[in-house]
Amino acid sequence: MKKYNNSQVLIPTVFTAAPAVIKEFKKTDYYPRLEKTGIVLSYICPLMYMNNPMCAKMPVITSSNKLRTYTTSRYYTDEEIVMQLCKGGI
Questions:
Q1: Are the CB atoms for 86 and 6 separated by under 8 Å?
Q2: Disulfide engineering: 38 pairs with which of 8, 10, 11, 14, CB 3.0-4.6 Å?
């Protein structure tokens, strides 16, 4: 983000993980840094979230092959996703 002079991601972003993982992550120095970028942490399973017809209409990008296979989300590599978050597109 520094490279593009951004302090926050340019598109709404949610990282998902198990509740215990999030609990431990919040104890680290990385959590406040992540929070400042505008990224949200959630324990909600992205697959279950995307199975909701209302949510399935939303554009979602992922680097998860499983999520791409079973939902309407679109697959991108990690590098492509970082570019979209930091620069606003590929």
A1: yes
A2: 8
